[in-house]
Amino acid sequence: MKHAIRFVLNGEELAVEIDVGQTLLQLLRDQLHVTSPKRSCEQGECGACTVILNGKAVNSCLVLAVAVNGKAVETVDGLERDGLHPLQKHFQELSASQCGYCTPGMLMAAKALLDSNPNPTHEEVKEGMSGNMCRCTGYVRPVEAVLAAAREMRDSTS
Ligand code: FES
Ligand code: FES
Known about the structure:
It is globular and about 50 Å long. By secondary structure, the chain is of the alpha+beta class. The protein is built from five helices and five strands, in the order ββαβββαααα. The protein has two domains: about 1-80, Beta-grasp domain (Ubiquitin-like (UB roll)); about 85-155, DNA polymerase, domain 1 (Orthogonal Bundle), CATH 1.10.150. A five-stranded mixed beta sheet has the order 2-1-5-3-4, covered by helices on one side.
């Protein structure tokens, strides 16, 4: 059975018809062809599918699409406005990404963290990224990149 929902995706209001059992990850990737949230475990274990839902980082493989009705979803596609977002810039500069499969999810977990806590400690960044697995780069450089982005964002608003 189909169900009509409306939601905002990266600032754009959308009206779509979904299957009741469909996940947000399926809606984004298979129906809307937004492929930045990656499909991997589909069990909430790896964080590759992380998006921001009403300000909170969520595993889109665990969220039913019907639950986003009336809400706002952000993916990494919405990060870049006038050039790279500081998180993207520092991931690039510090080589915090190799194959890049985990990177969109890491960036969205990091953005949700910095939106709620602009001055996180090293431990808070590690904790905020703890749901995002990386098979190549590891975690040292991504954490450094998030801290560097946080510094730049604070400096630019002071
Ligand atoms: S694909 Fe969603 S957590 Fe792994
Ligand atoms: S950069 Fe390859 S999985 Fe993280």
